[in-house]
């Protein structure tokens, strides 16, 4: 067992996520691919594998407890696959679409899906405003895509009836919430504790009225 396997298991326990050994192995393999491809594709500014456990894996997985009831999730501006790929591994029953306009990043994402064998993940290379899927999404998330008002404006056409936005933010986004357009309601803002991460995290749940 490697040092970061121990850190990952401890973090999952703190997040109250009970994953199987095969799921843990998939997370480890994803981390290894991220480290390998990051050397040439610049997927993340974080280079140290041990820091990626908290900053990427556990931060992404902190979303999972807040997705209850969802069946189709869109990860907007997925980049290196966060939070979409760790979420898809933790929730194999959830259909996850990873959307990014950067071809290099979606090339990496397709390789991850292929190597890890993730049947519940679809990779889309497109601009969010131009994306027209056959079926809309009941959960739409992003980790570092844009401010909330822009995020909602660009994705409104992708939201299913009775769907929810579940946006991942750092510090409490007072100003971004104040600038939300009419017809968007914030149903809750939750502080999120990410094991091993000494930084503020908040989850913003929004619905269309």
Automatic annotation (TrEMBL):
It catalyses: guanosine(527) in 16S rRNA + S-adenosyl-L-methionine = N(7)-methylguanosine(527) in 16S rRNA + S-adenosyl-L-homocysteine. This is Ribosomal RNA small subunit methyltransferase G. One of its GO terms (molecular function) is methyltransferase activity. Signal peptide: none annotated. InterPro entries: rRNA_ssu_MeTfrase_G, SAM-dependent_MTases_sf. The gene is rsmG. The lineage of its organism: Bacteria, Pseudomonadati, Pseudomonadota, Betaproteobacteria, Neisseriales. Keywords: Cytoplasm, Methyltransferase, rRNA processing, S-adenosyl-L-methionine, Transferase. Its EC number is 2.1.1.170. It comes from the Bacteria. Pfam families: GidB. The keyword Methyltransferase applies. It is found in: Cytoplasm. Gene3D superfamilies: Vaccinia Virus protein VP39 (3.40.50.150). Its main location: cytoplasm.
């Amino acid at each position: 067992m490697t040092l970061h396997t121990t850190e990952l298991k401890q973090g999952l326990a703190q997040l109250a996520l009970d994953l199987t050994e095969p799921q843990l192995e998939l997370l480890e393999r994803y981390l290894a691919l991220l480290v390998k491809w990051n050397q040439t594709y610049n997927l993340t500014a974080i280079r140290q594998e041990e820091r990626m456990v908290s900053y990427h894996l556990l931060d992404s997985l902190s979303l999972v407890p807040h997705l209850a009831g969802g069946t189709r999730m869109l990860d907007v501006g997925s980049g290196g696959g966060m939070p979409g790929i760790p979420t898809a591994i933790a929730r194999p029953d959830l259909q996850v679409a990873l959307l990014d306009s950067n071809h290099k990043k979606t090339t990496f994402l397709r390789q991850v899906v292929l190597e890890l064998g993730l049947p519940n993940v679809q990779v889309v290379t497109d601009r969010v405003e131009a994306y027209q899927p056959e079926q809309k999404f009941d959960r739409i998330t992003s980790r570092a895509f844009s401010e909330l008002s822009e995020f909602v404006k660009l994705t409104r056409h992708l939201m299913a009836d009775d769907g929810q936005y579940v946006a991942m933010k750092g510090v409490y986004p007072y100003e971004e919430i104040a600038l939300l357009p009419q017809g968007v309601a914030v149903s809750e803002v939750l502080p999120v504790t990410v094991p091993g991460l000494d930084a503020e995290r908040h989850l913003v749940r929004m619905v269309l009225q």
